[in-house]
Amino acid sequence: MGDKTVRVRADLHHIIKIETAKNGGNVKEVMDKALEEYIRKYLPDKL
User: Fold this and answer.
1) 46 vs 27, 36, 39, CA distance in Å?
2) Which Gene3D superfamilies does the record match to this protein (predicted)?
3) What is the secondary structure of 4-37 as a DSSP string?
4) How far apart are CA 1 and CA 25, in angstroms?
């Protein structure tokens, strides 16, 4: 895996942990939201 891939995964994992704790533990919902936010932020032309 490239350096950038590892960083993206670490960032997403961090976001998911925080958001899951905040909203009571719905991991699937949090993951979908985190991915969407990440894509909007870093790959806006892909949506």
Assistant:
1) 24, 11, 8
2) Met repressor-like
3) HHHHHHHHHHHHHHHHHHHTTS-HHHHHHHHHHH
4) 29
CB-based contact 16:31 (threshold 8 Å): yes
Flag whether the pTM goes above 0.70: no
Structure tokens at 24: 């009571």
Q: Report the alpha-carbon distance of residue 46 to residue 15 in Å, rounded.
A: 21
Other Cβ atoms closer than 10 A to 30: 20
Tell me: the pLDDT tens digits for 7-29?
Answer: 778 887 887 788 777 877 777 88
Measured from the Cβ of residue 34, the count of other Cβ atoms closer than 10 Å reads: 20
